Structures are given as C-alpha cells and as structure tokens.
Amino acid sequence: MSHYDVAVIGSGPAGTMAAYHLAKKGISVVILEKEMLPRYKTCGGGLVYRGRRRMPFDIESVVEREFKQINLYFTGDDKVLTSLRDVPVISMVMRDKFDKLLVEKAKGQGTEVKEGHKLTGITFGAISTLHTNQGDFQAKFIVAADGALSPTAKLAGWKETRKLIPALEYEVEVNAEDFARLSSEVRFDMDSVPHGYAWSFPKKNHLSLGIASTRRKKIDLKIYYKKYLEKLGIKEIIGEKAHGYQIPITPRTDGFHRNNVFLIGDAAGFADAVTAEGISNSLWSGELVAEAIFESGLNPEKAGRLYQQKLEKDLLPELHTSQTAARWFYGYRIIRNMLLKRYGDFAMSLMTDLYIGDRSYPKNLMKTIKGKIMEIKNPLM
Asked: Which CATH class is domain 2-65+92-161+250-323?
C-alpha cells in the first residue's frame, strides 16, 4: 500500500494548487481523481485576473480569449455599466485544458496523480487509509478538493451548512454572424432571472452561456435561458450542450478541518456570493492549506489551527462581506437600481478592482451603503 504525507481528492484548481505548493516544498503528495484526464468540467470558464495573478506559472497556452473590458446590462434599463483596465480582467479557459495544465505543473513538482481512482471510503486514524475502486492509499493529511458535492466532506462527517444556488451552463455554437457580434465582449445581464443574472463568455469558437439564481427555491432555469437567447438576438443554434450544477456561495459554518481532513475550494464553500465566481478563491485556499501543512511541520492539530487563522485573516472576511453585498444587490432591486443610477460608474470600477485583485470588499459595507442612500434622500448633505 502506498503512503503519502498528503492525499488530495480532486484535480481541479483548488486541489492541484495545493498539491503544487506542497510538492514544491518536498512534501509527498498524491492526487486521487475519479475521472480520466482531461475531462470536461461544468464551469463558465471565466478566470478573473485576481486568480490569474496568483498562478506561479504561465497559463497562456490554455487561454482561449482575454478581455480587458467587461459590460454589465440591466433588464428594462438601457444603461450599460462598463469598465476597462490595462490587464485581462477575465481570461477565458475550457476547464478540461486548464485543469490538465495545472495537473501537469503539479506533477512537475513531484506530485503523483492517480486517474480513474474514485474514493469509496476512509478509515480514519493518525494515518488514514483511503479506499478507492482501484486500491487503498495511506496519508497523514487529506485535502478535500472534490467540489460542491464533496463526497470526502460527507465521509468525514460534515453536514450541509453552505448555501448552494442553482446554475445552468451551455456550450453553444452559433452561426458566424452571431459569433462575430457576440464574441467581442464579456457581458453580464442582471435580473435575466429573478435574484440572479446571466452571462455570455466567448471562447475560441463558441459561446459559454449561463444563468444562475441566488435563490435556492425551485426554478426552471431553462425558461430564463431561452429568454436570454432572445435577448442576445441568437436565432440559429448549430450545437448546444447543457450542464446543470450547484454553486456554494457561503462558507461552511461547522469548520474547515476535522479528522485530519481539510476542506478547500467549493468543498468549503468559498465562491464569491455576488459573482458566484469560484476559481480564484479555490486557487487561494489551495495555497493557504499548503502553507498551513508545511508550516505545521506536518503536525495535523497545528496545521488545523494555522489553516483557520489564515482563512480568518482575509478570505473569510471577504466572503462574509460579499454575502452582505449579495443580499443587497439581489434582494433589494429598487434600492440597488436607485444607487446604481447615481453611483453606477463607481460601483463598476469597484467590482472590476475586485476582479483584478487591486482591492478587497470594504469591511464597512453596510455603513457605505446607508451613507449613499442618505446622500440620495438628502442631496444637500
């Protein structure tokens, strides 16, 4: 039976980044991946610059398109908010190619990768035994990077405390005329679904179109998707593949480590509540857990404390503020639109700064919002 210091479950951005940094420090790591690589991964595939700048290596070879400008549309309003930067605000990737590159970079540092190894159980102990459909492995640490559904978290005893929202994503091939028209911009269309938004992400030769609602109640996203196609003026679809999934937009409330298991990425619930973007925080959390394990001297108890401290320093406060922002943004549409009519350019610039990693969410968000409302009510203040 093979033994490792760390077993990472899942080969997405969170898991591969954790493995990369651990292996680089001389820690023995194995990635257990249930699929054979490369494999399709349901995702809009928009890597914001704050995530790209965290990458310790170049990813240009898998970037299909780059956009230095993003546009924000609102249903029933002709006003379009836009923001331009001198860096690629969003880089478009297909997750099969992107994730495969990350795996190869992790392997280059010494990580072993076991493809087609589905985790079926865990026997917990000081050295845990991970049971897969192709044999057993032993590891002192287990890093759960197996996505929103995270079987590893369930095996380790976590209950569901995250908020998971429904999303629908389509890979769409359109005619040449429509593609030429729609491939020139990244756009987000607010309120294209109640309490949510739609997006159009141009890839190399097709569009990734999606729609998500921040409400967990049952909703037929297909209806709103069809309306979005009409809004975009798409009349002919040459090819179309639909993928439904869930996005965890709140962190777990019952901790991120137990039984020598550490949760990162979507398994922990680290997607941004406003944008539902999760890749950048997945990369970040993978880096943080690697730091914690290394700095602990491979002491699980100490690693758990360090990981919690690192999360509480910046990542968790940002997520908590993004939750407040999301409640206002999607739950108070009239107030939001009133604020955006006056402060739309400022808000768009702020969000773009967040996307590119030049700033974080303001810690006094509620005070800022209330102050702006008072300015509108009392313009002479």
From this structure: alpha beta
When pLDDT is averaged across residues 20-24 and rounded to a whole number, the result is: 98
pLDDT score, position 78 = 75
Query: What is the sign, positive or negative, of the torsion defined by CA atoms of 321, 219, 154, 132?
Result: negative
Is residue 23 within a helix (H) or strand (E), and if so which, with residue range? helix 13-24
* Domain residue ranges of the chain, discontinuous segments joined by +: 2-65+92-161+250-323
Interval 201-215: pLDDT, tens: 999 999 999 999 998
pLDDT tens, residue by residue, 165-216: 999 999 999 999 999 999 999 999 999 999 999 999 999 999 999 999 998 7
Q: Helix, strand, coil % (nearest 5) of the chain?
A: 40, 30, 35
State the distance between the two ends of the chain, measured CA to CA, in whole angstroms. Answer: 72
Q: Smallest Cα–Cα separation from 210: which of 228, 230, 195, 194?
A: 228
Helix axes 365-377, 333-356, angle to 10 degrees: 130
- Residue 367, pLDDT > 70, answer no
Separation of alpha carbons 167 and 243, rounded Å: 9
